[in-house]
Design a protein that fits this description.
single chain, about 70 residues, alpha+beta, 3 helices, 3 strands, about 35% helix
């Protein structure tokens, strides 16, 4: 019998700065510098917290971490 359940997610949907740093193999401060310089996708602000959608960060890494310029 087949089930229609979706597969379990590979982790949280939104990543904090420590999780992004872990994926990139750098420090949390470096992630902040990359964001400030427009070299990575923008974070979603949730109050005082910055979070990134996991899918966006994974796609950005797969693409070779290209610079993302904001106007």
């Amino acid at each position: 019998q087949q089930t229609t359940e979706a597969p379990a997610a590979a982790g949280p949907v939104m990543l904090d700065v420590k999780a992004v740093a872990g994926l990139l193999g750098c420090s949390s401060r470096h992630v902040s510098r990359l964001q400030d310089a427009g070299q990575m996708p923008s974070a979603v602000k949730l109050g005082r917290l910055s979070k990134w959608p996991r899918k966006v960060i994974e796609q950005w890494i797969e693409a070779g971490c290209p610079a993302v310029r904001r106007s």
